[in-house]
Amino acid sequence: MTAIDPRTRLLLEAPIVPTVLRLAAPNVLVMIVQASVGLIETYFVGKLGGDALAAMALVFPIVMLMQMSSAGAIGGGIASSIARAVGARRREDADALVLHALLIALGFGLAFTLALLLGGRWLYTQMGGSGASLEAALVYSHWVFAGAVLVWLFNALSAVIRGTGNMAVPANVTVAGAVVLIPLSPLLIFGWGPLPGMGIAGGAVALLLYYLGGTLVLWLYLRSPRSLLKPKLIGVQLRRPLFRDILRIGLVGLIATVATNLSIGIATALAGQFGPDAIAGYGTAARLEYLLVPLAFGFGAPLLAMVGTCIGAGDRERAMKAAWVGAAITFAITETIGLTAAFFPLAWLTLFGTEPVMLEAGTQYLQVVGPLYGFFGLGQVLHFASQGAGRLFWPVLGNLARLLVAGLGGWLALHWGGNLMHVFAAQGAAFVVYGLVITATIAGGAWFGRVSWPRSTAALMRRIQPT
């Protein structure tokens, strides 16, 4: 039988709270840096004017859909499969899963390229884009999605490494890439000396160069003696069960990811009824919401690895306790961010623009929805933990419930004569529904069979109390 790697033993035996914090620290750093990459790009693009900022607001939900699909949904399926194979000491399967993961990523990357190159104009028009902002959105979109395969390969390789419990390598690669991207983005957007500026397209090109370099570095690591896995591209027999093991989790997670981004896309379209500045205001404010996704993923990725490894090894109790530790920490952090944004909205919004209508719309969103960010973070981190458990029915149902409340509620608000404030109230209510559905069902035993509700508060606390 294969000996247990020290990193795997850490996931199976070390004290839960310090282990979660230790694994999450570099991962939170990498996710914040990765999210900051998009914010930095938006900051520089905002210098090109209001139309460019509105263009970014139109494209950003689709870019984040790709990011979340590749890193969180399909990437979660990859990491879960690797973690469970390592936990069960099926090392040969774990090695073979790498090639299967890369082929899946390649297919999805090409699909995103075709869909957005052919259907981008229709999509952004439906989201409220028109005139100069629509044309700028198409320029940025065509550049970004022409290189969608690079984004998918980068996130697939990161997921493979995180599935082994190694959070440091993806973190280091991302931070190093961001250090390069910070000067590269304005250089390509505005130009310097003999190098002409590319405008909004320059931000997209800089982003793709970042993913290209990161992909190469991650692959070199996996081929090095330091890697737990020993993947090969040649001589590996492709096996349907390995594809199915990744996709049965990844595709279900993809439904949840689409629902998350569709909620924001619908809100963008509803805001579009109040003009381009309202789109820019909502889009800029909602970027803080998107910052919560990588923050939750910072805790969710190590939870995924720990839950998957523990379940692979047959230790259900430890898997559950790890999930509640991560959930409590993530709720506290995301709720603090939301309350801060609600009290000081202009500190965030004025980083990207000063148009009065934009600031008014963004302020309304942050003051209404910000205090409920904790529920969003709670649902997100438990979704990732559920990927590790290989049980995503209830998290997906929670996402669909969120989509229904946000989309239908926002539409009804305007249909009945409401304003942007009412649209945002529907978004906030959707967060609460999302977080509570996932939390309640996991506490009821959804990972291990039928949901059965605890008969008393004491029984519930026994289920969720970490040790």
UniProtKB/TrEMBL annotation:
Its main location: membrane. It comes from Zestomonas insulae. InterPro entries: MATE_fam, MdtK-like, Membrane_Transporter-Flippase. It is found in: Cell inner membrane. It is a multi-pass membrane protein. Keywords: Cell membrane, Membrane, Transmembrane, Transmembrane helix, Transport. The chain crosses the membrane at residues 20-40, 52-76, 97-120, 140-161, 173-192, 198-222, 249-271, 291-311, 323-344, 364-385, 392-414, 420-448. It comes from the Bacteria. The keyword Cell membrane applies. Signal peptide: none annotated. The keyword Transmembrane helix applies. This is MATE family efflux transporter.
